[in-house]
Amino acid sequence: MIKRRISWFAFLNVILLSGVALATLYPFVYMLAVSLSRDIFILRNEITFYPKGFNLDVYRLVLSDSLIVRAYGNTILYTVIGTLLSLAVTGMGAYALSKKHLVFHRSFTILIIVTMFFSGGMIPTFLVVKSMELMNTIWAMVLPSAVSTFNLLVMRSFFYSIPAELEESGRMDGLNDFGVFWRIVLPLSQAALATIGLYYAVALWNNFYLPFLYLTDPQLFPLQVVLRSIVLAGSSAFGDANSVGGDQVVVDEALKYTVIMVATIPILCIYPFLQKYFVKGALIGAVKG
């Protein structure tokens, strides 16, 4: 009887999760198929799961545009620098908070937790960034979002699980606090760092809020801002877009989907390389708090 219940649960679970997976993947499959299809088949609304009249003309148009190439470079730069900075600050801050003998440990923890529910708001933050002369700089893209309180607390919970005996053995060998953190704690925290780093990287790659606040120079715009402009303006953002397809509306649809795919695929390609760490680190801090 128990086995039958488990098998029915597993069967229903597979059906439900398969439906969720299909509903999640289909928009990407459809956009990819449209972006790789000829305009005549898009006009006839014949695209479903696979492209018809396979061609890469719209991809050549998008990837040859200097505005998109520059925005791509800016996004990669912001993501790499921002992720490294966020991991450094979050790791060191979480390690310090994991030590209960830290002076004002409880007070610091409470102050940090309060920021999860209350913040200064958009205007005070904007005034702070402007007063520090960070407008139209790379630091305006990475410093305001350098630390996530949730990620900091999760990392702190993970550091709690590291045996204190390992750190004591390092100090007996002459390591100071920074040496223990660099030589012992970090090598044991690869799963946690990979998971938290992935969260930061995805947030920075999809960053859409900060550029509108702190950037006015088009040369510094990330890919998401350019993507918004193209989605709203369509092929009017490209001087020779009409030469790619025969119909203006069709070119607009293929162009929008192509730019979306170009902006989405790179960050999706990171997941397979971090999967083994992500599976280990997804539940860090779930037991100890």
How would you portray this structure in words?
This protein has 289 residues and is mainly α. The chain has two domains: 2-43; 57-281, MetI-like fold, CATH 1.10.3720.10. It is built from 14 helices and no strands. The protein has helices at residues 2-35, 39-43, 57-63, 66-97, 105-114, 122-131, 139-142, 149-160, 164-172, 177-185, 190-205, 209-214, 223-233, 248-281. It is globular, with a radius of gyration of 24 Å. The two termini are 38 Å apart. The model is unreliable at 240-250 (pLDDT under 50).
Largest sheet: none
The CATH superfamily of the largest domain turns out to be MetI-like
End-to-end gap: 38 Å
Summarize the amount of helix as a percent range: 55-70%
Give the low-confidence spans: 240-250
The amount of beta strand, in percent, is under 5%
CATH architectural type of the largest domain:
Orthogonal Bundle
- Give the overall silhouette: globular
Secondary-structure-derived class: mainly alpha
In the CATH scheme, the class of the largest domain would be Mainly Alpha
Q: What is the name of the CATH topology of the largest domain?
A: MetI-like fold
The helix tally amounts to 14
Number of strands: 0
- Report the average pLDDT across residues: 81
The secondary-structure element order is HHHHHHHHHHHHHH
Taken together, the total number of domains comes to 2
Q: Which radius of gyration do the C-alpha atoms yield?
A: 24 Å
